[in-house]
Design a protein that fits this description.
Order of helices and strands: EEHHHHH
Structural class: mainly alpha
Helix content: 55-70%
Number of strands: 2
Oligomer: single chain
Low-confidence stretches: none
Distance between the termini: 29 Å
Length: 151
């Protein structure tokens, strides 16, 4: 099956009409990235609340963590990062340009935080790192196609 070359005409300031390529089905990856960021932000908040209120849940004590912080500090780090990721996910779903840039920055920060927290709960942190990578990939590879949707 071959993909057809579609285009749309849009007005450009100071000129008449200009032809731009129409967005492809890959724009759906941006919606996917936004949804994954909502999920990722929720996971961070849950992980942070568990670290704040039920520290014995994790597999190692605070001394066994990769980065030597107590679970209260890790908890607040996860809660704050989770809220920021949630808001960027909402912006990404809304098609905001700032959200594409912020999504990559926060997904990168999330991956780094989860690498530091991996000793506490390896499976959970690994899943979150995988979601981070998917978000970064979707936004960086297919984010430019949203420009023609936003216009």
């Amino acid at each position: 099956m071959t993909e057809t070359n579609r285009s749309t005409s849009v007005p450009v300031q100071g000129t008449s009409w200009q032809t731009q390529p129409a967005p492809t089905a890959w724009v759906g990856w941006i919606a996917f990235a936004g949804t994954m960021m909502l999920l990722l932000g929720t996971f961070h908040v849950i992980q942070g609340l568990v670290a704040l209120f039920q520290q014995e849940y994790y597999l190692v004590g605070a001394n066994g963590l990769t980065v030597k912080l107590d679970y209260t500090q890790w908890g607040w780090t996860h809660v704050i990062l989770g809220v920021l990721i949630l808001s960027a996910g909402i912006g990404l779903i809304a098609g905001q340009m700032w959200a594409r840039v912020v999504a990559v920055i926060f997904a990168f920060a999330s991956a780094i935080v989860n690498i530091g927290f991996i000793a506490a709960y390896a499976v959970w942190s690994t899943i979150m790192i995988a979601i981070d990578v998917l978000v970064i990939w979707a936004v960086t590879v297919h984010g430019s196609e949203m420009k023609s949707v936003d216009a």
